[in-house]
UniProtKB/TrEMBL annotation:
<feature type="binding site">
    <location>
        <position position="171"/>
    </location>
    <ligand>
        <name>substrate</name>
    </ligand>
</feature>
<dbReference type="GO" id="GO:0002949">
    <property type="term" value="P:tRNA threonylcarbamoyladenosine modification"/>
</dbReference>
<protein>
    <recommendedName>
        <fullName>tRNA N6-adenosine threonylcarbamoyltransferase</fullName>
        <ecNumber>2.3.1.234</ecNumber>
    </recommendedName>
</protein>
<feature type="binding site">
    <location>
        <position position="188"/>
    </location>
    <ligand>
        <name>substrate</name>
    </ligand>
</feature>
<dbReference type="GO" id="GO:0005737">
    <property type="term" value="C:cytoplasm"/>
</dbReference>
<dbReference type="InterPro" id="IPR022450">
    <property type="entry name" value="TsaD"/>
</dbReference>
<keyword id="KW-0012">Acyltransferase</keyword>
<keyword id="KW-0479">Metal-binding</keyword>
<dbReference type="InterPro" id="IPR000905">
    <property type="entry name" value="Gcp-like_dom"/>
</dbReference>
<feature type="binding site">
    <location>
        <position position="184"/>
    </location>
    <ligand>
        <name>substrate</name>
    </ligand>
</feature>
<keyword id="KW-0963">Cytoplasm</keyword>
<keyword id="KW-0408">Iron</keyword>
<comment type="function">
    <text>Required for the formation of a threonylcarbamoyl group on adenosine at position 37 (t(6)A37) in tRNAs that read codons beginning with adenine. Is involved in the transfer of the threonylcarbamoyl moiety of threonylcarbamoyl-AMP (TC-AMP) to the N6 group of A37, together with TsaE and TsaB. TsaD likely plays a direct catalytic role in this reaction.</text>
</comment>
<dbReference type="InterPro" id="IPR043129">
    <property type="entry name" value="ATPase_NBD"/>
</dbReference>
<dbReference type="GO" id="GO:0061711">
    <property type="term" value="F:tRNA N(6)-L-threonylcarbamoyladenine synthase activity"/>
</dbReference>
<feature type="binding site">
    <location>
        <position position="278"/>
    </location>
    <ligand>
        <name>substrate</name>
    </ligand>
</feature>
<feature type="domain" description="Gcp-like">
    <location>
        <begin position="27"/>
        <end position="312"/>
    </location>
</feature>
Length: 343
């Protein structure tokens, strides 16, 4: 609707310079410049390289988003930006840019939490979030289970990873298997022709009564398994290893997510973050949700991975809720807790 605020969102917490433009919950532009190619040869994101890439990509990406949305700077009603968590230097570029645009355009600034933004974005595709819902956020940087009474006001952490994030485990196991970085999509693809029950890899913290995750033991188990086969000169069937590893990850993720739904008597589960693109995670989550009478919401892959539209969406919710804008003094906070939805 034309009377809803036009919000520009800026995301720079990792390697993606994401600029999103929304009007209310209508997506007008979601433009992304990624520096992933510059990191691939290091097998992981190099923070300083990411920060410089954000600096170079910021202005052209904003201009491309405005052109794509068919709007002008003067049409913008508010600026939202990821204030944390994420890489400190990378966040700093986005926060500084957002302050400059807010000041220059004379519009309010909203510093938002990256994780809450991953939850909010689903509304662009599936409409307003049920209150409450349970959210499982799985990416290269985070694995969290959240109880979300109201994404603009209150997000409660039920648990998170105690070591590696789920996507990080995918990336590390891919490296062990000689697959490119980032490894998640390659494991997903290799696993299609593999047998997920071929190898019984450990399921960390499963049924321990908490909503925390642990993936480093699993990652080590896969590495040891591969090393042992290599040492004895046996050939390794990559699809079976990929499928068995993937099965261990998604089994734990979906099991804990549904345990949380049951514990809190919540009937809506949302899955977000880059790992939500995983085909087996989506299939198993759907299967288990159907069995438990839980409705499953997973945004399309382009909205699951880091992007600016998610930040703009949460900004739009904050404007709609009448939340006071952020001060121009807000810091970039690399360890911003999920309980702080906006700063
Ligand atoms: O959300 P995201 O784009 O960035 C952050 O880390 O915040 O997530 C990237 C992660 C990487 O670890 C990547 O390997 C993983 O998401 N990923 C996948 C798949 N696609 C991306 N993991 C498993 N299966 C996939 N299909
Ligand atoms: Zn993310």
């Amino acid at each position: 609707m034309a009377d809803e605020p036009l919000v520009l969102g800026i995301e720079t917490s990792c390697d993606e310079t994401g600029i999103g433009i929304v009007r209310g919950h209508t997506l007008l532009a979601n433009t992304i410049a990624s520096s992933m190619e510059e990191h691939a040869r290091f097998g992981g994101v190099v923070p300083e390289v990411a920060s410089r890439a954000h600096l170079e990509a910021m202005t052209p990406t904003i201009e491309a988003a405005l052109a794509g949305a068919g709007v002008k700077f003067s049409d913008i009603d508010a600026i939202a930006v990821t204030a944390g968590p994420g890489l400190a230097g990378a966040l700093l570029v986005g926060v500084a840019a957002a302050k400059a645009y807010s000041l220059g355009l004379g519009v309010p600034l909203y510093g938002v939490n990256h994780l809450a933004a991953h939850v909010a974005v689903d509304q662009l595709e599936h409409g307003p979030l049920p209150r409450p819902c349970i959210a499982l956020l799985v990416s290269g940087g985070h694995s969290s289970l959240l109880l979300v009474p109201d994404v603009a006001e209150e997000v409660i952490s039920l648990g998170s990873t105690v070591d590696d994030a789920a996507g990080e485990a995918f990336d590390k196991v891919a490296r062990v298997l000689g697959l490119p970085f980032p490894g998640g999509p390659y494991i997903d693809k290799a696993a299609v022709s593999g047998n997920g029950t071929a190898i019984a890899f450990p399921r960390g913290k499963i049924d321990d009564g908490t909503f925390d995750f642990s993936f480093s033991g699993l990652k080590t188990a896969v590495a040891r398994w591969v090393e042992a086969r290599e040492a004895s000169g046996e050939s390794i069937h990559v699809p079976d290893v990929a499928a068995s590893f993937q099965e261990a990850v998604v089994d734990v993720l979906t099991r804990k997510a549904l345990q949380a739904c049951k514990r809190y008597d919540v009937h809506d589960l949302l899955i977000g973050g880059g790992v939500a693109a995983n085909s087996r995670l989506r299939a198993l989550a759907q299967e288990r949700c159907d069995k438990a009478g839980v409705r499953l919401r997973v945004p399309r892959p382009g909205l699951c991975t880091d992007n600016g539209a998610m930040v703009a969406t949460l900004g739009s919710d904050l404007v709609a809720a009448g939340v006071a804008p952020s001060s121009l003094e807000i810091p970039a906070d690399s360890s911003l807790p999920i309980t702080t939805v906006h700063v």
